[in-house]
Design brief:
single chain; alpha/beta; seven-stranded parallel beta sheet; two-stranded parallel ribbon; about 15% strand
Length: about 475
């Protein structure tokens, strides 16, 4: 069934009544559309309704004589929330139960989904593309806030528990440490790499997983996990060793395995091993690639030992196997500009990566970067400037790409500089506030794909 926003004489409350009338028929899907004021159409000449439309195709209504812009804007968010959680039928059992309560109970369906939309906006979920597990957790919190423990239990039973990553350390290194692609490693990376919370690498994979599960399982009542091969380059080892380590991570409690590595450590032979493991053990495969910047001068400065072309090649190969690709980016490297940040978002969008992790650069003690920092050879931008770069990155990033994080963390004892001596949540608040002030959201400036220059010939023929 279809329902149109912006019809003559239909204000916000009347639209809500129409929504309730159709919802009471228990449709499998209730599609919400917005009136289009196409050029030359009769509705454009109905001046008594004071229609205001978007000047760009498809010319959707922005306001009417009885429906102000703020209401239309809210209904846009309402449509998104309703599409995610009801029309998608991903939560059919839960909303089958809720639908009966809304049809026969005191609260009507329109009010209920308006409340859900307000909760969605209050959490800032409209600004980023959330992972499925984050959407599941949002629903669970909303149900509990409504006092609907039955819906919450339905939901938990149907979609399971939260999945936790378990860090795994292997006895390996990186090609820009051992001489294959350089020596000394990345100038920002310490002797232990990124594995501040890892178990010792001399422990077997199974031993590390068992210890982590024994700690995390009871604490969070967790039952599902993803072994995360995190430290250094986890495909930089002999093929048979790689296969053995990956197989050891395929425990019964694991729903997938995640492998952090470098673009120059991806080849078809290693991807073949992962494809075989995926098919034999029925585990999802997640590959995390460190890129950090698209500026090739900066890549050389930080001694990455690979270039942008190798990153592009790695992503294209991984995508051919259907594996999930996450890219790590640092948006405040001393030599990068706002233009580099925006170009990074564009390249990741054009390649169709699945997820992104953003980091603020932290200065690890006893590194070359620390030496430059102490000698005043490099300076870092302010927290406010970092937030500005993240906001522009988000706005240019394709809306389908999931953001795993906006700012990283590191132990203060190991660093000279970490997040401007602020809690990571304060940095994230700066980003959220800036997005609100600009009325911006992820992907609202992602207009550069699929032939931007020729779009004028396709969308209405207007120059």
């Amino acid at each position: 069934m279809d329902l149109i926003v912006g019809l003559p004489h239909e204000d916000f409350n009347r639209f809500g009544q129409s929504f309730n009338d159709l919802f009471s028929l228990q449709p499998h899907a209730l599609q919400i559309g917005f009136l289009k004021l196409l050029k030359g159409s009769g509705v454009r000449r109905m001046r008594e309704y004071k229609y205001v439309a978007d000047p760009l195709a498809p010319y959707e209504v922005l306001s009417t004589h009885v429906l102000p812009y703020d209401d239309v804007r809210f209904l846009k968010y309402f449509e998104d929330v309703f599409e995610r959680f009801y029309n998608s039928e991903r939560f059919r059992t839960t909303f089958g139960y809720i639908g009966q309560q809304l049809i026969h109970g005191e609260t009507d369906a329109f009010t209920y989904f308006c409340d859900m939309t307000h909760a969605w906006l209050k959490e800032g979920n409209h600004k980023v593309n959330l992972k499925d597990i984050d959407q599941i957790e949002f629903l669970y919190r909303f149900f509990l806030a409504k006092g609907d423990t039955i819906a919450a239990e339905f939901y938990k039973e149907t979609y399971g528990e939260k999945v936790y990553k378990l860090p795994v350390a292997l006895p390996l290194t990186c090609p820009n440490r051992d001489g294959s692609a350089g020596v000394g490693g990345c100038t920002f990376c310490g002797e232990i790499g990124a594995g501040y919370e890892n178990r010792p690498a001399w422990m077997t994979v199974r031993m590390q997983l068992e210890e982590n599960i024994a700690h995390i399982g009871p604490k969070y009542k967790a039952k599902k996990f993803i072994p995360y091969y995190q430290n250094f380059s986890n495909t930089y080892l002999p093929l048979e060793d790689f296969k053995s380590y990956m197989e050891q991570g395929c425990i019964d409690e694991a729903v997938g395995i995640a492998i952090a590595t470098r673009p120059d450590c991806i080849s078809n032979e290693y991807l073949d091993v992962l494809q075989d493991i995926q098919q034999r053990f029925h585990k999802d495969i997640y590959i995390e690639l460190g890129l950090q910047t698209v500026n090739y001068h900066t890549l050389e400065k930080i001694n990455r030992g690979h270039d942008l072309a190798q990153f592009i090649d790695a992503v294209l190969r991984i995508k051919r196997y259907g594996f999930n690709v996450t890219t790590h980016m640092i948006v405040n490297l001393p030599w990068d500009t706002m233009e580099d940040t925006i170009e990074g978002a564009k390249i990741l969008s054009s390649l169709g990566v699945d997820q992104v992790k953003l980091h603020a650069l932290y200065i690890v003690k006893h590194t070359l970067m620390a030496k430059w920092y102490e000698e005043g050879q490099i300076t870092l931008i302010s927290a406010e400037e970092y937030a500005e770069r993240v906001v522009q990155f988000l706005r240019h990033l394709h809306p389908d790409i999931v953001l795993q994080r906006l700012v990283g963390r590191a132990p203060e004892d190991n660093t000279l500089f970490t997040n401007w001596s602020m809690g990571w949540w304060r940095v994230q608040d700066l980003i959220d506030d800036m997005m609100d002030e600009l009325d911006a959201h992820q992907g609202d400036l992602c207009d550069y794909l699929n032939g931007k220059a020729v779009r004028k010939f396709i969308d209405g023929g207007q120059a």
